[in-house]
Design a protein that fits this description.
single chain; about 200 residues; alpha+beta; three-stranded mixed β-sheet; about 20% helix; about 30% strand
Length: about 200
Amino acid sequence: MKARAATIAAGDAAELIWLLEHPPLYTAGTSANPADLVAPDRFEVHKIGRGGQYTYHGPGQRVGYAMLDLRKRGRDVSAFVRGLEQWIIDALAELDVTAERRCGRVGVWVTRENAQGVVVEEKIAAIGVRLKKWVSFHGISINLNPDLTHFEGIVPCGIREHGVASLSSLGRDVSMQDLDAALKSSFEAIFSPTH
């Protein structure tokens, strides 16, 4: 990923999006608070150079690494992050899931009624990026059907007051192929073709 971003920055490679799944692991972004690693021995912990705090990656979660050249896309980091959020929101809309962004909280959020009849807000997708020479790397993660108990070993993204959701926990029976198709069809509407 870093090598590809460097070749994009040098003008020797085209932009690229990688869609993948990781084995169970925790990642620590540059703002990670050690106190937010609740169960340090549960999974491997990887300190990585993206922004943000602790997050979980694992089976049933679509991770998207976005290596895009922001020199051709306005050199606006805030607009780029909003674009990533909108990409996810639009893809989830294609799967009949209403998702939204929240002021002051990066990522994508859903609301639902819990077992007690209380409406709760939960994070369904996380964003953590890094830029070098105006080329992005790292990216997004969307919870399709991961084991949500795996998030209990961390304070996800440093947010204690809200839980984590998945398409499965919302009652949506969606395959990874369905999610990938929605991501592909919504990408160009937000970012235009890759260069």
